[in-house]
Amino acid sequence: MVVHTGNRYGRSEEARRNVLQEADDLVVAVGLEATTIEEIARRAGVAKQTIYRWWRDKNAVLLDVVIRDTELTLDLPDTGSLPGDVTQMCANLTDFLIHDDAGAVLLSLRAQAITNRAFGEVFRTRFWQGQVAREQEPLRRAVGRRELPDDTDIDHLRLRIVGPLYAAAEEGLLDRGFAREHSRAVLAALG
Q1: Is the pLDDT of residue 8 over 50?
Q2: Do 88 and 121 fall into the same domain?
Q3: Do 121 and 146 reside in the same domain of the chain?
């Protein structure tokens, strides 16, 4: 007996991947405001109803793009030291924000989350809380290795490290040189 998942031709997962890829490419090409479900569907070769079966709106599609890409790109290996982890964190986040299409999508969705309360809540619960935890992990490891005091305010330190990178990206000023200088300054401040 053959068990089918999705449509009867087994294209469901392929169609879903196509939608995510085309949504990613489209928002980078034309911007968040000009991206429409109709154009995503056309480019992905699916019906609009297919998209609405899986996602509520274009922001939900794009959020899944960002979730997929950050899980693949932004997990940080343990370098064994706080300086190595901070340097790697800054480099990875910078590369993601300036070289990965999903980085541009993330910046657009961050702005949308500020102006659209309903989407902002979804953004925080489905993505941002996980991203914050991912960014805190190297700092928790440093506390465990006794490179940072036990009473370190991990939330505040994380924001000091990555906040300027997000801000510089939003202003179009982020590059690898900025990230290197920033990580050196953070490490110097930590002593």
Answers
A1: no
A2: yes
A3: yes
CA distance 98 to 96: 6
CA distances from 56 to 49, 50, 59, 63 (A): 11, 11, 8, 11
Q: Does 50 share its domain with 67?
A: no
Question: Quick check: is 7 in a domain?
Answer: no
- DSSP conformation class of 169: H
pLDDT digits (tens, 9 = 90+) for 87-98: 999 999 999 999
Q: What pLDDT is recorded for position 5?
A: 45
Q: How many CB atoms lie within 10 A of CB 123?
A: 23
Tell me the C-alpha distance between 54 and 71, whole Å: 20
**Ordered alpha helix ranges (H), 45-175:** 48-54, 58-73, 82-99, 101-115, 117-123, 129-144, 154-170
- Whether 21 maps to a domain, the answer reads yes
4 belongs to a structural domain? no
Q: Is the pTM of this model over 0.85?
A: no
102 lies in a domain?
yes
Percent of the chain whose predicted confidence (pLDDT) is above 70: 94
